[in-house]
UniProtKB/TrEMBL annotation:
Gene3D superfamilies the record matches: 3.30.450.180, lambda repressor-like DNA-binding domains
Pfam (any one): MLTR_LBD
CDD domains: HTH_XRE
Domain HTH cro/C1-type residues, every copy: 13-84
InterPro entries registered for this protein in UniProt: Cro/C1-type_HTH, Lambda_DNA-bd_dom_sf, MLTR_LBD
Classification of source organism: Bacteria, Bacillati, Actinomycetota, Actinomycetes, Kitasatosporales
Name of the protein in its database record: Helix-turn-helix transcriptional regulator
Species the sequence originates in: Kitasatospora arboriphila
Length: 282
């Protein structure tokens, strides 16, 4: 749960947002007798379905709120996604993000695509919280094969690691990285573990890579750690790449994977591969 200092900060944060709202913003009629800016505490309490005394104590940092009640207060205060995340963190909770719809996914992919393209010699891809690929750059396609060639319902990093012959053929010692991908998914997926899309991916894995069924039946978790891997596309020679990952600011549940050439030879070979991608097809 939150610390006393965090509770005080949460109260100040809620109060500041309450004072920014106008009655009309929440469907109330303004009156000429208002002496303070924004909404009254009793109005926020009523909109949130809580008592006035309790809401007053919340702003004073004297009580803690359940996740459900804090979400109701956030709705009453018209907090956006970033505001809700901040409030949840101050209250000691990790937010439970709502599933992104197609428009959200497309918008995120469009926003991140210029970043991916800025690494012409470094394979990079954007993943959603199910590890579905939302975007990738030319270097990713040149090294691992174009994701467009994979059926959309299998365009998922876990499926690629377990069942894609091109990736397994290019990546030396693929199993430790593949296992780490599965462990990291379980560690960060949260509500995505019970989503229909996760079930669908696991069904495809059962069908296409049944010999690895113990991987997705395992409950071990781990962070996706930085590491150096070796790949060897046909006709290019071994290439050492350093894997790193980060979360886009616009969606902390998404993930960007970046494979950076580890030395000048690796950079030169990746440049050759991306300039003449057909050479890797052998």
């Amino acid at each position: 749960m939150s610390t006393p200092a965090a509770s005080q900060e949460l109260g100040a944060f809620l109060r500041a947002h309450r004072e920014l709202l106008k009655p009309a913003d929440v469907g109330l009629t303004a009156t000429a007798r208002r002496r303070t800016p924004g909404l009254r505490r009793e109005e926020v309490a009523s909109l949130s379905g809580v008592g006035l005394a309790w809401y007053t104590w919340l702003e004073q940092g004297r009580v803690t709120a359940s996740r459900q009640v804090l979400e109701a207060v956030a709705r009453a205060l018209r907090l956006d996604a970033a505001g809700l995340r901040h409030a949840m963190r101050l209250a000691g909770y990790h937010e439970s993000p709502a599933p992104a719809d197609a428009a959200d996914r497309d918008g995120l992919a469009a926003a991140v695509r210029p970043v991916l393209d800025s690494w012409p010699a470094s394979p990079a891809a954007l993943l959603d919280r199910h590890f579905d690929l939302l975007g990738w750059n030319a270097a990713w396609s040149a090294l691992w094969g174009p994701p467009e060639a994979v059926p959309a319902d299998r365009r998922n990093l876990m499926w690629l690691m377990a069942a894609d012959g091109r990736l397994r053929g290019v990546l030396h010692d693929w199993e430790p990285l593949a296992m780490n991908v599965f462990q990291h998914f379980r560690a960060q997926a949260g509500p995505a573990l019970s989503d229909p899309r996760t079930d669908e991916v696991y069904r495809h894995l059962d069908t296409d890579a049944p010999e690895l069924r113990h991987w997705w039946g395992c409950h071990s978790v781990a962070e996706l750690t930085a590491r150096t891997v070796t790949v060897e596309p046909a006709g290019i020679g071994p290439i050492r790449l350093t894997l790193s990952s980060f979360h886009p600011v616009d969606d902390p549940t998404a993930l960007v994977l970046l494979f950076t050439p580890a030395d000048p030879t690796a950079r030169a070979r990746m440049t050759t591969l991306t300039t003449h991608p057909l050479r890797s097809a052998g």
